[in-house]
Amino acid sequence: MISSGTALGQFNDSINHYIYIGSTGSFSKTNDLASYVLSNNFKFAISKKKLSFNTVNSWVYGEQSDVKSNNDFSSLIEFDFLKKQKRLYYWGNGTFDKSYSLKIDFRYQAGAGLGLNISQTPNLVLNVTEGLIYETGSMIDKDLGERDYDVWRNSARFKYRWVMKDMIILDGFVLYQPSISTRHDTIFKTSTTLSIKVRKWLSLSSALTYNEITLTDRRNLIVTYGVIMERFF
């Protein structure tokens, strides 16, 4: 999985911390085939007047007819500076990924850039970020086989969160990371979660995530459903 998710909880002046635990999955069984996917996510965020901190960790595991299809781990640490005070703000992050389905042995990213708040209301959050990241890792190239590599990438991301009547929440992001020096080396990911609150801290959810890496010629599409527990404090 490409790490780029973010805790999109809406803070106010009295709420400085946010915690999110989500467990979703899907299962299918016929006479000839059985398959399942489990997705577990943990997010934690701290928001101060000028600086905010956000960490996102996810693990996806799946099997199809007793053959492993997914064993993907992703971790993100992200910082935002002046995001609550200015429309134009600064960001920096570091990530680690390991993915069986995308043929990534390991991958590290670190970078920084600028972000723009398009909307920052309790019911609608829209922002875009643009920056430069350095990436190093080991993966199975579609032409060269397993190899170590390093590359500089442009990183563009659009994030959104829409709250309807304090009950239905639609949030997600679109990430595009092309290599600066190499053609046909692009990372693309999009993720959308629809959740319906049944309690203040508990929601039913359905999520769709799509990943594509041109360097390994691999992609995955995961649709899951389950529960989300979150709390502001």
Task: Describe what you observe in this structure.
The chain is mainly beta and 233 residues long. It has one domain (17-232): Lipocalin, CATH 2.40.128. Helices cover 0% and strands 74% of the residues. The protein has no helices and twelve strands. The chain has strands spanning 17-29, 34-47, 51-64, 67-81, 88-99, 104-120, 124-141, 145-164, 168-178, 186-197, 202-213, 218-232. It has a twelve-stranded antiparallel β-barrel.
Q: What is the gist of this entry?
A:
This protein has 233 residues and is mainly beta. It has strands at residues 17-29, 34-47, 51-64, 67-81, 88-99, 104-120, 124-141, 145-164, 168-178, 186-197, 202-213, 218-232.
Distance between the termini: 29 Å
What is the strand tally? 12
Shape: flat
DSSP helical segment count: 0
> Average pLDDT value?
89
CATH first level: Mainly Beta
Low-pLDDT sequence parts: 1-9
Rounded radius of gyration (Å):
18 Å
CATH level-4 homologous superfamily? Autotransporter beta-domain
Indicate the percent of residues in helices: under 10%
Written as H for each helix and E for each strand, in order along the chain, the element string is EEEEEEEEEEEE
Beta content comes to: over 45%
| CATH topology-level name | Lipocalin
Which strand order do you get reading across the main beta sheet? 1-2-3-4-5-6-7-8-9-10-11-12
Which class best fits the helix and strand makeup?
mainly beta
